[in-house]
């Protein structure tokens, strides 16, 4: 698994190793036109993952993706709440 290729595993790996601040985790993924991609294309973008809602937002805080597996309202427990 490559850390910056978008997948559930890479998101999980990054949020487990990134500080939780201001309600989100800062993560990085390869992207294509601002959307995370499973392809290693050389363009690395920063995103903000909000577990309360399971949303991944871009640097303008626009919602880019929703992932129900990582939504606290659907039972997901993020790393900062496990400690």
Verbal overview:
This protein is an alpha+beta fold and about 80 residues long. The protein has one domain (about 10-75). The chain is built from 2 helices and 6 strands. Strands 1, 2, 3, 4, 5 and 6 form a 6-stranded antiparallel β-sheet that branches. A hairpin with a 2-residue loop joins strand 2 (about 25-30) and strand 3 (about 35). It is globular, with a radius of gyration of 12 Å. The model has no long low-confidence stretch (mean pLDDT about 95).
State the major sheet.
Answer: 6 strands, antiparallel
* Radius of gyration over C-alpha positions, nearest whole angstrom: 12 Å
**Distinct helical segment count:** 2
Shape: globular
Index terms:
single chain; alpha+beta; six-stranded antiparallel sheet; 2 helices; 16% helix; 33% strand; globular
């Amino acid at each position: 698994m490559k850390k910056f290729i978008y997948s559930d595993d890479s998101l999980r790996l990054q949020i487990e190793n990134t500080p939780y601040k201001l309600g989100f985790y800062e993560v990085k993924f390869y992207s294509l036109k601002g959307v995370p991609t499973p392809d290693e294309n050389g363009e690395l973008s920063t995103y903000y993952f909000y577990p309360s809602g399971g949303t991944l937002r871009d640097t303008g805080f626009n919602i880019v993706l929703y992932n129900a597996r990582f939504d606290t309202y659907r039972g997901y427990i993020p790393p900062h709440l496990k400690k």
